[in-house]
Amino acid sequence: MKNNTIKVIFDNDIDIDYHLNDTELSRLWARKIKHLQNIPIDPVESYLEDVSDFKRIYQEFCEFANIEPIDIDNLDQNKLNQLHRVYEEQHQRLSRLKDNSILYKLHHSIHFHEGHTTDDQGIFIGWGKYEGPLTHEYKCHSLYEDSIIKNHIYLPWSELGKRPLAYWKDKEPNDQYRFNALAKPHTTFRAKFFIATKDIAPRPFNSDFVTWFDRYKQGWLEHNKIDGWENIHEDSAPLLAITDYKGNLEGLKFKKIIINK
């Protein structure tokens, strides 16, 4: 890039200047965003859709997928785990169909009811199906920052699965095969980003989680070809761009990002 400056504009005419972080990942991200900056963002991927009404979303999903619904009157964690598996099983087929936003609404709604949403930590922006071939594999694992700094831009974890801590909290099966299949490090590089609205210091791991994780950790690390998994991989992210702006961005609505050419 000839110019490494970025401008983010919000709907109340606040615009903020950023400088691209000096990494290959950041430069590749900026090239992706150049292709998308004039395309409307996806409301589901950008946490703008209300996903609290699980019954309605699940009914629409089953109609779209042409599958028989299960009883969800008692929507406990075991049932949510079962529904997440349904989402995984249907993803490859339904992701190829047109007008498939209900697939992703279901996924977001599952995590909303599990309490795993992160939209209170930042302003998340994504383009959903418009990303197309801009999504690819990239080893993001080693690029995680020690902490997240308010107002900077970061690359979110975007896997078809759960982080190890969420896997444990959700009482997913105590099984190495299922853990290897569902728990994921950060290897998918999508044309997404989030602007942090608060400073975040990674929390120490719960001792019960550490004890449980020790049983499956080595097999999982070898399966994913990574050296380790620390609290930064749960609570932090790779840095994409920095700003000198110190104001409060909470409650603002994203309008546009401009990557200077």
Q: Would you mind describing this structure in some detail?
A:
- A 7-stranded antiparallel beta sheet has the order 3-7-5-8-2-1-9.
- By secondary structure, the protein is of the alpha+beta class.
- It starts with a strand and ends with a strand.
- It has one domain (5-47, 117-259).
- The chain is built from 8 helices and 9 strands.
Question: What's the short story on this structure?
Answer:
With 261 residues, the chain is an alpha+beta fold. The protein has 8 helices and 9 strands.
Q: What does the secondary structure layout of this molecule look like, with pairings?
A:
Elements: E1 5-10, E2 15-20, H1 24-36, H2 54-65, H3 77-94, H4 101-114, E3 122-125, E4 136-137, E5 153-154, H5 164-169, H6 176-182, E6 188-189, E7 193-196, H7 207-224, H8 232-235, E8 239-242, E9 254-259
Helix pairs in contact: 2-4, 3-4
Radius of gyration: 19 Å
Structural class: alpha+beta
**What is the count of distinct domains?**
1
The 3D shape can be described as: globular
Beta content comes to 5-15%
If strands are numbered along the chain, what order do they take across the biggest sheet?
3-7-5-8-2-1-9
Helix content: 25-40%
Largest sheet: 7 strands, antiparallel
